[in-house]
Amino acid sequence: MRILAIESSCDESAVAVLDETRGLLAHGLWSQVDLHRIYGGVVPELASRDHVQRLLPLVRDALATAGTAPEELQGIAYTAGPGLVGALLCGAALARSLAYGWRLPAIGIHHLEGHLLAPLLESPAPQFPHLALLVSGGHTMLIEARALGDYRLLGETRDDAAGEAFDKSAKLLGLPYPGGPQLAALAAQGRSGACPLPRPMLDRPGFEFSFSGLKTAVALAARAQPLDEQRRADIARGVQDAIVDTLCVKTLRAIEATGLSQLVVAGGVGANRELRSRLSAALAAQGGQAFFPRLEFCTDNAAMIAVAGLMRLKAGERCDADPGVRARWPLTQLRPPRAAMTGAT
After folding, report:
1. What CATH architecture is 2-117+299-342?
2. Mean pLDDT of the chain
3. pLDDT in tens, 30-61
4. How does strand 12-19 pair with strand 2-7?
5. Where are the alpha helices (DSSP H) in 193-301?
6. CATH code 3.30.420.40 region(s) in the chain
7. Would the pTM count as exceeding 0.90?
8. Comparing C-alpha atoms, which of 2, 1, 17, 11 is closest to residue 302?
9. Which of 53, 159, 211, 217 lies in disulfide reach of 165, CB 3.0 to 4.6 Å?
Protein backbone atom coordinates (compact mmCIF):
# COMPACT_ATOMS: atom_id res chain seq x y z
CA MET A 1 0.00 0.00 0.00
CA ARG A 2 1.15 3.52 -0.82
CA ILE A 3 -0.65 6.57 0.52
CA LEU A 4 -0.61 10.36 0.40
CA ALA A 5 -0.96 12.26 3.69
CA ILE A 6 -1.82 15.90 4.43
CA GLU A 7 -1.31 17.76 7.72
CA SER A 8 -2.77 21.24 8.34
CA SER A 9 -3.84 21.35 11.98
CA CYS A 10 -2.13 24.63 12.87
CA ASP A 11 0.65 26.64 11.23
CA GLU A 12 2.50 24.01 9.20
CA SER A 13 1.40 22.88 5.75
CA ALA A 14 2.80 19.39 5.21
CA VAL A 15 2.46 16.53 2.72
CA ALA A 16 4.06 13.06 2.66
CA VAL A 17 4.03 9.89 0.57
CA LEU A 18 4.55 6.62 2.46
CA ASP A 19 4.99 3.16 0.96
CA GLU A 20 4.38 0.06 3.05
CA THR A 21 7.54 -1.70 1.87
CA ARG A 22 9.84 1.12 0.69
CA GLY A 23 9.14 3.47 3.58
CA LEU A 24 8.88 7.24 3.41
CA LEU A 25 9.25 8.30 -0.22
CA ALA A 26 8.68 12.04 0.20
CA HIS A 27 7.80 14.60 2.81
CA GLY A 28 7.52 18.34 2.41
CA LEU A 29 6.67 21.10 4.88
CA TRP A 30 6.00 24.81 4.67
CA SER A 31 6.32 26.59 8.02
CA GLN A 32 4.36 29.77 8.74
CA VAL A 33 6.70 30.94 11.51
CA ASP A 34 7.74 34.09 9.65
CA LEU A 35 4.10 34.91 8.89
CA HIS A 36 3.04 34.80 12.55
CA ARG A 37 6.23 36.07 14.21
CA ILE A 38 5.18 39.72 14.17
CA TYR A 39 2.03 38.80 16.13
CA GLY A 40 3.87 36.68 18.72
CA GLY A 41 1.63 33.68 18.03
CA VAL A 42 -0.53 31.94 15.46
CA VAL A 43 -3.35 33.98 13.88
CA PRO A 44 -5.95 31.36 12.81
CA GLU A 45 -7.35 33.23 9.80
CA LEU A 46 -3.89 33.90 8.38
CA ALA A 47 -2.96 30.26 8.94
CA SER A 48 -5.99 29.06 6.96
CA ARG A 49 -5.32 31.42 4.05
CA ASP A 50 -1.72 30.28 3.83
CA HIS A 51 -2.72 26.60 3.83
CA VAL A 52 -4.96 27.29 0.82
CA GLN A 53 -1.95 28.61 -1.09
CA ARG A 54 0.62 26.06 -0.01
CA LEU A 55 -1.00 22.62 0.19
CA LEU A 56 -1.68 21.82 -3.45
CA PRO A 57 1.85 22.77 -4.61
CA LEU A 58 3.21 20.61 -1.78
CA VAL A 59 1.10 17.69 -3.02
CA ARG A 60 2.48 18.10 -6.53
CA ASP A 61 6.05 18.31 -5.23
CA ALA A 62 5.67 15.28 -2.94
CA LEU A 63 4.24 13.09 -5.71
CA ALA A 64 7.02 14.18 -8.08
CA THR A 65 9.72 13.48 -5.45
CA ALA A 66 8.20 10.07 -4.73
CA GLY A 67 7.94 9.28 -8.44
CA THR A 68 4.30 8.46 -7.86
CA ALA A 69 1.28 8.99 -10.09
CA PRO A 70 -2.21 9.26 -8.55
CA GLU A 71 -3.15 5.81 -9.91
CA GLU A 72 -0.30 4.30 -7.88
CA LEU A 73 -1.85 5.46 -4.59
CA GLN A 74 -4.16 3.29 -2.52
CA GLY A 75 -5.47 5.96 -0.16
CA ILE A 76 -5.25 9.47 1.27
CA ALA A 77 -4.94 10.39 4.96
CA TYR A 78 -5.48 13.84 6.45
CA THR A 79 -5.52 15.42 9.89
CA ALA A 80 -9.13 15.65 11.11
CA GLY A 81 -8.36 17.16 14.54
CA PRO A 82 -7.73 18.43 17.06
CA GLY A 83 -6.56 21.82 15.85
CA LEU A 84 -7.72 25.09 14.33
CA VAL A 85 -10.99 24.39 12.53
CA GLY A 86 -10.27 26.61 9.54
CA ALA A 87 -6.82 25.14 9.08
CA LEU A 88 -8.13 21.59 9.43
CA LEU A 89 -10.84 22.23 6.85
CA CYS A 90 -8.23 23.34 4.30
CA GLY A 91 -6.42 20.01 4.49
CA ALA A 92 -9.59 17.93 4.79
CA ALA A 93 -11.27 19.59 1.80
CA LEU A 94 -8.21 19.08 -0.40
CA ALA A 95 -7.71 15.46 0.71
CA ARG A 96 -11.36 14.53 0.23
CA SER A 97 -11.50 16.27 -3.16
CA LEU A 98 -8.41 14.43 -4.39
CA ALA A 99 -9.75 11.13 -3.04
CA TYR A 100 -13.06 11.67 -4.84
CA GLY A 101 -11.40 12.66 -8.10
CA TRP A 102 -8.88 9.81 -7.98
CA ARG A 103 -11.44 7.28 -6.64
CA LEU A 104 -9.41 6.49 -3.55
CA PRO A 105 -10.44 5.81 0.05
CA ALA A 106 -9.78 8.64 2.48
CA ILE A 107 -9.35 8.64 6.23
CA GLY A 108 -9.26 11.39 8.86
CA ILE A 109 -6.48 10.94 11.41
CA HIS A 110 -6.23 12.13 15.00
CA HIS A 111 -3.29 14.53 15.18
CA LEU A 112 -2.09 13.17 18.53
CA GLU A 113 -2.24 9.57 17.33
CA GLY A 114 0.05 10.69 14.52
CA HIS A 115 2.54 11.99 17.09
CA LEU A 116 2.32 8.76 19.08
CA LEU A 117 3.08 6.68 15.98
CA ALA A 118 5.87 8.90 14.60
CA PRO A 119 8.64 6.71 16.16
CA LEU A 120 7.45 3.86 13.89
CA LEU A 121 9.27 5.71 11.11
CA GLU A 122 12.56 4.88 12.84
CA SER A 123 14.55 1.68 13.27
CA PRO A 124 14.31 0.05 15.70
CA ALA A 125 10.66 0.89 16.27
CA PRO A 126 8.68 0.44 19.50
CA GLN A 127 6.22 -2.40 19.96
CA PHE A 128 2.82 -2.38 21.63
CA PRO A 129 2.19 -2.18 24.54
CA HIS A 130 4.34 0.72 25.67
CA LEU A 131 4.18 3.91 27.72
CA ALA A 132 3.99 7.20 25.83
CA LEU A 133 4.88 10.69 27.00
CA LEU A 134 3.09 13.09 24.65
CA VAL A 135 4.52 16.52 25.33
CA SER A 136 3.96 19.59 23.15
CA GLY A 137 2.74 23.16 23.18
CA GLY A 138 -0.84 22.10 23.71
CA HIS A 139 -0.59 18.74 25.48
CA THR A 140 1.29 17.01 28.27
CA MET A 141 0.01 13.46 28.74
CA LEU A 142 1.17 10.07 29.97
CA ILE A 143 -0.55 7.31 28.02
CA GLU A 144 -0.53 3.54 28.16
CA ALA A 145 -0.58 2.62 24.47
CA ARG A 146 -1.89 -0.95 24.34
CA ALA A 147 -2.56 -1.19 20.57
CA LEU A 148 -3.41 1.03 17.63
CA GLY A 149 -6.38 3.10 18.80
CA ASP A 150 -6.34 1.58 22.31
CA TYR A 151 -4.97 4.29 24.59
CA ARG A 152 -5.43 4.62 28.35
CA LEU A 153 -4.80 8.08 29.75
CA LEU A 154 -2.79 7.88 32.97
CA GLY A 155 -2.38 11.59 33.62
CA GLU A 156 -2.27 14.98 31.92
CA THR A 157 -1.68 18.63 32.69
CA ARG A 158 -4.28 20.47 34.73
CA ASP A 159 -3.45 23.81 33.12
CA ASP A 160 -0.50 24.82 30.91
CA ALA A 161 1.29 22.20 28.82
CA ALA A 162 5.06 21.84 29.06
CA GLY A 163 5.60 23.35 25.62
CA GLU A 164 3.38 26.28 26.56
CA ALA A 165 5.48 26.80 29.69
CA PHE A 166 8.62 26.86 27.54
CA ASP A 167 7.09 29.36 25.10
CA LYS A 168 5.57 31.69 27.70
CA SER A 169 8.75 31.68 29.78
CA ALA A 170 10.72 32.57 26.67
CA LYS A 171 8.39 35.49 26.03
CA LEU A 172 8.90 36.71 29.60
CA LEU A 173 12.65 36.66 28.94
CA GLY A 174 12.27 38.68 25.76
CA LEU A 175 13.21 35.84 23.42
CA PRO A 176 11.88 35.83 19.84
CA TYR A 177 8.98 33.67 18.60
CA PRO A 178 8.83 30.67 18.60
CA GLY A 179 10.26 30.77 22.09
CA GLY A 180 10.70 27.15 23.17
CA PRO A 181 13.72 26.31 20.97
CA GLN A 182 15.24 29.72 21.74
CA LEU A 183 14.95 29.11 25.48
CA ALA A 184 16.51 25.64 25.21
CA ALA A 185 19.47 27.10 23.28
CA LEU A 186 19.94 29.87 25.86
CA ALA A 187 19.73 27.37 28.73
CA ALA A 188 22.98 25.80 27.54
CA GLN A 189 24.73 29.00 28.65
CA GLY A 190 23.03 29.08 32.06
CA ARG A 191 24.45 27.92 35.39
CA SER A 192 22.86 24.96 37.13
CA GLY A 193 21.18 26.00 40.38
CA ALA A 194 21.70 29.72 39.80
CA CYS A 195 17.94 30.27 39.48
CA PRO A 196 16.03 27.54 41.35
CA LEU A 197 12.43 27.21 40.24
CA PRO A 198 9.58 24.99 41.53
CA ARG A 199 8.97 21.43 40.28
CA PRO A 200 5.18 21.44 40.09
CA MET A 201 3.25 18.58 41.75
CA LEU A 202 6.27 16.37 42.38
CA ASP A 203 5.27 16.23 46.04
CA ARG A 204 1.94 14.58 45.09
CA PRO A 205 1.31 10.99 44.00
CA GLY A 206 -0.01 10.13 40.57
CA PHE A 207 0.73 11.26 37.05
CA GLU A 208 -0.88 14.70 36.79
CA PHE A 209 1.08 17.78 35.70
CA SER A 210 0.75 21.52 36.31
CA PHE A 211 2.97 24.23 34.85
CA SER A 212 1.06 27.48 35.41
CA GLY A 213 2.82 28.05 38.76
CA LEU A 214 6.19 27.67 37.08
CA LYS A 215 5.28 30.42 34.62
CA THR A 216 4.42 32.72 37.55
CA ALA A 217 7.75 31.91 39.23
CA VAL A 218 9.59 32.80 36.02
CA ALA A 219 7.78 36.16 35.84
CA LEU A 220 8.84 36.93 39.43
CA ALA A 221 12.44 35.86 38.79
CA ALA A 222 12.61 38.03 35.66
CA ARG A 223 11.53 41.09 37.69
CA ALA A 224 13.68 40.39 40.75
CA GLN A 225 16.97 41.45 39.15
CA PRO A 226 18.12 43.30 36.03
CA LEU A 227 17.96 40.96 33.04
CA ASP A 228 21.51 40.97 31.75
CA GLU A 229 22.59 38.14 29.45
CA GLN A 230 23.86 35.87 32.23
CA ARG A 231 20.74 36.33 34.33
CA ARG A 232 18.55 35.58 31.33
CA ALA A 233 20.56 32.41 30.62
CA ASP A 234 20.38 31.33 34.27
CA ILE A 235 16.59 31.69 34.31
CA ALA A 236 16.35 29.78 31.03
CA ARG A 237 18.43 26.97 32.56
CA GLY A 238 16.18 26.99 35.62
CA VAL A 239 13.05 26.71 33.44
CA GLN A 240 14.44 23.82 31.42
CA ASP A 241 15.68 21.98 34.50
CA ALA A 242 12.30 22.35 36.23
CA ILE A 243 10.32 21.11 33.24
CA VAL A 244 12.67 18.23 32.41
CA ASP A 245 12.89 17.13 36.07
CA THR A 246 9.11 17.10 36.35
CA LEU A 247 8.59 15.17 33.12
CA CYS A 248 11.27 12.61 34.00
CA VAL A 249 10.05 11.95 37.55
CA LYS A 250 6.43 11.51 36.48
CA THR A 251 7.37 9.34 33.49
CA LEU A 252 9.59 7.02 35.53
CA ARG A 253 6.84 6.79 38.13
CA ALA A 254 4.46 5.65 35.37
CA ILE A 255 7.01 3.13 34.06
CA GLU A 256 7.23 1.59 37.52
CA ALA A 257 3.45 1.54 38.00
CA THR A 258 2.66 -0.08 34.65
CA GLY A 259 5.64 -2.45 34.47
CA LEU A 260 6.26 -1.42 30.84
CA SER A 261 9.82 -1.35 29.57
CA GLN A 262 9.40 0.69 26.39
CA LEU A 263 8.81 4.44 26.34
CA VAL A 264 7.78 6.59 23.38
CA VAL A 265 8.39 10.33 23.68
CA ALA A 266 6.41 12.33 21.11
CA GLY A 267 5.50 15.93 20.38
CA GLY A 268 7.49 19.12 19.92
CA VAL A 269 9.09 19.11 23.38
CA GLY A 270 10.40 15.63 22.53
CA ALA A 271 13.05 17.45 20.48
CA ASN A 272 14.59 18.86 23.68
CA ARG A 273 18.04 17.30 23.93
CA GLU A 274 18.20 17.39 27.72
CA LEU A 275 14.90 15.52 28.00
CA ARG A 276 16.04 12.94 25.45
CA SER A 277 19.33 12.37 27.23
CA ARG A 278 17.80 12.04 30.70
CA LEU A 279 15.04 9.65 29.69
CA SER A 280 17.29 7.52 27.48
CA ALA A 281 19.78 7.06 30.32
CA ALA A 282 17.07 6.34 32.90
CA LEU A 283 15.34 3.70 30.75
CA ALA A 284 18.65 2.05 29.84
CA ALA A 285 19.58 1.83 33.52
CA GLN A 286 16.34 -0.09 34.14
CA GLY A 287 16.85 -2.43 31.19
CA GLY A 288 14.27 -0.62 29.08
CA GLN A 289 14.44 1.57 25.99
CA ALA A 290 13.23 5.03 25.02
CA PHE A 291 12.11 5.76 21.46
CA PHE A 292 12.03 9.18 19.83
CA PRO A 293 11.12 10.42 16.36
CA ARG A 294 13.94 12.14 14.50
CA LEU A 295 13.98 15.84 15.29
CA GLU A 296 12.13 16.91 12.12
CA PHE A 297 9.24 14.58 13.02
CA CYS A 298 8.81 15.82 16.60
CA THR A 299 6.95 18.92 15.46
CA ASP A 300 3.89 18.82 13.19
CA ASN A 301 4.49 16.91 9.96
CA ALA A 302 2.65 14.75 7.43
CA ALA A 303 4.89 11.69 7.75
CA MET A 304 3.33 10.84 11.12
CA ILE A 305 -0.17 11.25 9.64
CA ALA A 306 0.88 8.88 6.85
CA VAL A 307 1.94 6.22 9.37
CA ALA A 308 -1.39 6.35 11.21
CA GLY A 309 -3.32 6.50 7.94
CA LEU A 310 -1.48 3.53 6.45
CA MET A 311 -2.13 1.38 9.51
CA ARG A 312 -5.83 2.23 9.64
CA LEU A 313 -6.43 1.97 5.89
CA LYS A 314 -4.70 -1.43 5.85
CA ALA A 315 -7.15 -2.55 8.53
CA GLY A 316 -10.03 -1.54 6.28
CA GLU A 317 -11.11 1.64 8.05
CA ARG A 318 -12.66 4.39 5.88
CA CYS A 319 -14.34 7.78 6.34
CA ASP A 320 -17.93 8.56 5.53
CA ALA A 321 -18.98 11.53 3.38
CA ASP A 322 -18.63 14.03 6.24
CA PRO A 323 -15.01 15.22 6.63
CA GLY A 324 -15.85 15.76 10.31
CA VAL A 325 -12.95 17.95 11.45
CA ARG A 326 -12.89 18.67 15.18
CA ALA A 327 -11.25 21.49 17.09
CA ARG A 328 -11.38 19.33 20.23
CA TRP A 329 -11.07 15.56 20.10
CA PRO A 330 -10.03 13.62 23.21
CA LEU A 331 -7.50 10.92 22.36
CA THR A 332 -9.40 8.45 24.52
CA GLN A 333 -12.34 8.62 22.09
CA LEU A 334 -10.28 6.73 19.51
CA ARG A 335 -10.90 3.02 19.00
CA PRO A 336 -8.97 0.25 17.28
CA PRO A 337 -9.75 0.02 13.54
CA ARG A 338 -12.03 -3.03 13.75
CA ALA A 339 -14.05 -1.51 16.58
CA ALA A 340 -14.34 1.74 14.62
CA MET A 341 -15.70 -0.11 11.59
CA THR A 342 -18.24 -2.17 13.50
CA GLY A 343 -19.33 0.56 15.86
CA ALA A 344 -18.31 -1.52 18.88
CA THR A 345 -17.17 0.18 22.08
Report:
1. 2-Layer Sandwich (3.30)
2. 94
3. 999 999 999 989 999 999 999 999 999 999 99
4. antiparallel
5. 212-224, 229-258, 273-285
6. 2-117+299-342, 126-292
7. yes
8. 17
9. 211
